[in-house]
Design goal:
It is built from four helices and no strands. The protein is an all-alpha fold and 71 residues long. The radius of gyration is 23 Å and the shape is flat.
Length: 71
Amino acid sequence: MTDTVTPAQSPATDAGTAADTAPTLDAIKEKLNANETVAKAKAFAKERPWATAAAAGVIGLAILNTLRGRR
């Protein structure tokens, strides 16, 4: 006995849309809130706002300098 696949059962046609398979924003937030590294980064930002701003500035300048030469 052979199994036949009808078009309704075909994996290629039953892939769904990107919205069906994409994670929701709430699911992403839950995963990030459960992450220990993100929790440590948030605590650091709350304890040391000036250091966080300085680090963000240095990283921003590094990105701008990296992209400056590309055209």
